[in-house]
Amino acid sequence: SLTLAGSAGFPPGEAARWRYVPPDVATVARRALNGPDGEWLPSLAESGLPTIGRREYADGARIAVPSGTGGRIHGVLEIAWPRPEGPLPRPVVRQVEALAELCAHTLETYAPPPGTGPEPGLLPDVVELMDLADGLHDPALVLVPYLDDAGRLVDFRIQHVNSRFLDPAGRPRAVVSGALLLEAYPMAAGASELFQRVERVHATGEPFRARRMRLTALVDEVPLSAVADISISRHGAAVLLIWRIEDETARLASLLQHAQRLGRIGGFEENLLTAEITWNGQLFSLYGRPVSSPPVALHDLPAHAHPDDAVTLGRFLRTLMHHRRPASAAFRLLRPDGVTRHMRVVAEPVLDTDGQLFGVRGAYQDISAQHWTEVALAVTRDQLAHTEQQAVERNRLALQLQHAIMPPTQAPLRVPGLQVAVRYRPAETEHLVGGDWYDAVVLPSGLVLLCVGDVAGHGIEAATSMVVLRNALRGLAVTGAGPGQLLSWLNIVAHHLTGAVTATAICGLYDGERRILRWARAGHLPPVLVREADADALPPVKGLLLGAVPEARYEETEVQLAAGDTLLMYTDGLIERRDRSVEESLSHLVETARAAPSTLDQQLDRLLTYSRSDTDDDTCIVGIRVA
What we know:
Structural class: alpha+beta
Shape: flat
Low-confidence stretches: 114-120
Radius of gyration: 37 Å
Number of strands: 25
Distance between the termini: 67 Å
Largest sheet: 5 strands, antiparallel
């Protein structure tokens, strides 16, 4: 970026406008830094480049020369002529170069005054602009640039909003003042291009005017729009943003949008200061009143409701008017034609810039059909109780299915030169039947298939999906494919054949003759290798969880095992905690695994005993020890 170190012959206000030039703004001085000979412009107007004094010397010639000593550039010297000029004589060029070198000695030890750098404080021109904004009759914001650590412009701080400011979303002035522009109005960089306009005005100093620009704000994640005339101008280091929202059109459009957000049946808006009440046509129809009749004020609502609903409506009005919080209430409306309708009124207070209540807006909704539906639902409570009993039976069935396929312990696998032990600990509550699974089987090729997995979710769906994946992997493994290919096929099964479930898994093939384990992972925690008195997690390989995409590729790697090595595969139920990261929990598992008991079964039992997991999830462990 460039900072104005000094100037002569320019008005103070013009110099203040060019005190700071953000990066990547193509000014005359910036162009001069691109070449050793600087930049010569016979006429500034013909170049179209922004620079200091463009208004005073628009048609004059301009020269900019890098200013440096000893091969180091300290700044740029820029000189303006009042009129267009032809090529400069060589003596004049040498004088300019000598002057640039003289300036370089000053710039070498130059320190910018406080408040003139990329992060300006509350400068005098900003204070003056705030005073100017307070004297305007239109809503105005004073914006100051907000830069990151590298000095790049990333946003604008809303330094001040005047007393006439009205937020399109109805928020108080204190909520907007002091916030970043893109935080207060995150959609300013979208369809309205408001942020880009402010950024350009700050960079070039050229004011911007627009009629009927659409301003969009987010309220409760719902975009609300208003049409306004926009004026943006730069004053020193700050930017003044003025918008004039269309009065009648914007008010009716905002009323319609709020009615849609709060019920989209019958909308209203009430000004408590002027007693002006606005209803849409649907609300007159709900009340059974002609359009020519006066609307009903909120404080008169109990007179048009059933007497038994007086307490409910009184609580609604106190919350809305006294506590100034959004409120809702259900009541029975007694219409003039004798018809009684069940209604729900939803309203929110509207505060002025000083936080004072000056209006209420909201919507009425006819919920008569919903009321009779609730009456019908009350008759079916016995059926719901029966359904709950069925759910309990369903969970018990899932638990029995899980225990039948995944017993807590399994008979030892007889493999020469290899000890294999497994442990399965179901969830502590029957309502959390999970999808954790393991498998250890000798394939026809003589390789040993070792795998663990975890299906997302709980209940019978997770249990049945676990059975599908486990059996599918067994069947695929007899093809002789590697673990990466097996997981690719298993991903297709998870995505297309099991209702699009997702799961994590580790698949390994152990070659007893070479003592080599080939393994791959699908979003699962890496295995832990225990060798003598040391233990550590294997470096993870890339692999997306199963079922996330229709097709996926999985990397595989090999690990050379030695006699006495122990390899542990497990599910996250062994280590997962709510109050710490996965990395911390994995470190605790590694520390526990280092203190290895004499037998493999004792080691797995020790890991279950000292597990700090607090998620009540299923846990599977597969351990192998090379003899």
